[in-house]
Amino acid sequence: MNPLVAIRQFDQSLWLDFISRPILINGKLQRRITDEALRGVTSNPAIFAKSIGDSSDYDSAIQALALQGKTTDEIYTNLAVADVQAACDLFRPLYDDEHTSSDGYVSLEVSPTLVNDTEGTIEEGLRLWHTVDRPNVMIKVPATLEGLPAIRRLIAEGVNVNVTLIFGLERYRLVTEAFLAGLEDRAQAGLPLARIDSVASFFLSRIDVLIDPLLEKIAAEGGEQGALAQSMVGEVALASAKQAYQLYKEIFAGPRWATLEAQGAATQRLLWASTGNKNPKYDDLKYVENLIGPKTVNTVPVETLDIFRERGQPASRLEDGIEQAREVLRRLPELGIDLEERTNFLEVDGAKKFNEPFSKLMLSLDMKRKHALDLQVVPVAMRLGGYQAAVDKQIDELNDQDFTEGFWAKKAELWVQDEAGQQSIRSFMGWLRVAETMVGRVSEIEQFVHEVKAAGFKHVVVMGMGGSTMAPIVFKAAFEQGENGLPMSVLDTTDPGTVRQIEASVPLADTLFIVASKSGTTAEPLAFGDYFYAKLKELKGDKAGENFVAITDPGSKFVTSATAQGYRRIFLNFSEVGGRFSALTYFGLVPAALYGLPIGELLARAIRMMRACGAYGDAKRNPGLDLGAALGTLAQLGRDKLTLVVPEKLSDLGLWLEQLLAESTGKEGKGILPVAGEPLADPSLYGQDRVFVYVGYKGQADEANQTKLKALEQAGHPTISIFMDEALDLGQEFFRWEVATAVASAVLGINPFDQPNVQAAKTATDGLMKVVEEQGSLPEKTQPVARENGVAYYSAVSGEGATEVLKAFFDQARPGDFLCLQAYLTENPAVSKSLQELRARVQARYHIATTSGYGPRFLHSTGQYHKGGPDTGLFVQFTDDNPQDLALPGRSYTFGTFKNAQALGDLEALHSYHRRTLRVHLGADAEKGLKKMLAALDLKA
Q: How many Å apart are CA 177 and CA 180, to the nearest integer?
């Protein structure tokens, strides 16, 4: 049997004298608990100095806290408390189990600067107890004379106390007296004594390190005293421990203790500390094997624990040689050695040994704090030409009304004046500070990633719609898979061909499926989850749920169903954060972490932008406000088509910005239309409705785009450029654009956090699906105005054949209009190429902006703008026969029918808003159908 496990039969608990964030995250501490019967953890300032100060493991957290304006002391406390909380959570099952309830503790020490400060120790002990907020934390308090009253008071307050720096027997007696008196104080106050636990930490190896040289010097002088001294070398610490145990047995017996025990009190166990051997002449396990006994704890360093696992010989030895131990302590004064005096020195020296590394750590933290405050955000270059004066005026007006201060105070009147609208705004502004909250969740997420990898998963599929999947799509495109990450796919369409592709491309049994739905009622992700759950059930039976993770809001129905299906994990997001503002929440960060990205660094950069935008006080220049004021003002002046230009690796950033901007601003006949994926053309092809925004990287050549942007600027078009240092700067760009979108909405006088026109398409789709359930198929409500070469055309315009219908439809284009291609098709390079060709041909002929999206994805992003924004769109919808259709488990319809119902439902919604539409049904082969349509397209004047 593993000696670490075997030692339990002697009723001794082994605790680990070490803590660090990596062992909490990577599963090492959990494995020691599970496989090696580890029963607790102790920490001290020296341990944290090593973990925090001598590594880069905490740097992103330090930076994030520094940017929030935390002091050096606050940063240290935050880091230490977070680690202790995580460790407490790992040990909680031990603590909660009635058979092991005396264990499962994690110790956190008060500041070593308080070693001689009674009131300061009490104050900090209580503060740490309430901050950690775990019943299985122990607050470490030094056994100094000033510490004794603090121990009594904390015990009386119901705080678990680990009394540290005990070196001598007389001081140990005083410690037990403080413990007993604290319990009596508590009992007198009528408070319960159960589960008030304490340990008395007796430090051992340091005793021998101090006394052995004195004994060896006497032994070297020879004679009778020399012989006596020689016999005591290496024995004083063990003798002290053995005698302390006898005192323990004596103290926790008799009528005084019986009275407390009857009220539920548990003894203050002895804990052997400083048990790592410091003398190479001694056996490495000297202070472990010789001190095994009932009702005791031994906290050991990592190295000693590993040695005991390999060659430990567990046996009850604590009461062996009791008489010899007493003899050692009785005769020590004969050699002129006053053990009490010497241990008093050790107490002072011990405090010093903790204080010195702690001071060094605080200096290191302070340097890192100051460095973080010197970091700057990525600048924006705005070349607005004749619009600059109007933008400057708008910025001045916003600053005059203290917009930044009101923004952070969530003053809804900055946007709208009606009470209902203001309440809506206030209830969805949780995104403002969610990055701060998520900094504290990084370890939790990274721990989950290690759990997933340890379980053998080889792939991740994120399934959702809109804001639930946009950030993961951006992360996958902008970053290479991290060294410790898993390959990731994203499913955000009901297209059966795409679902088939995902299913065929992943090892189903070894794939983790993330079902992401804020409301928990979104039809598409629930359909995805049901489909793949059925597939996994065929492979794994009742264990299918192990392959699934849910991300949703608290209280959603999805929580209930995911729990019933045995999902591996349910991450509860934040109800006050809207989907399109959720990139920096669990929706974006769980997939990012599984993909191997450093989410702590992403958050630190987001908080850097928060600071620049005034989150922690006055901002000299709010970059989010400046950008938002520019976009809002330009939109008011007719420049409402934000044309995004990016290098290839950032191509999917447009998907995220499309939803953020279009769904937030496209309402009440107003809005900013993001135009993504439209290659830059000659300036002559653009109307006066454009603003060009470039987002790229410093030092990466993108000469073609830069040359064209320069030409556009010279032609009088406003341009905005953002050059990031690296992809991790997306953390700050997410936040900058969220602020800018909110500010632009304020300029436009609209609520950026609602989506009042989205429901129209959902309602129409629901009506169609009821028909399907009743009649078995979708209704054919209209007839095509043209049918040619297997392609059918549906529109309010008319004409003889496809060419005339197409020309009549596109000839409706007016200056300031835009083309919107809505492809309810399987996304592939050939289809995308044809769609791009159509965009280019329309732009060349009519000089209007062109957008393109795959359905039903865009319903959850730009769909709001299409119905609620200005009536300037020409909408071309593409559907097909879904030749690769798939049945949906538990439903009477297929994925293909569901997708086509969504297409027709959206078309009905567009018609209800009197939009100009053309539906093109491509038949059984979408690629060929698109080519036939393009062949029929003749846009000559």
A: 5
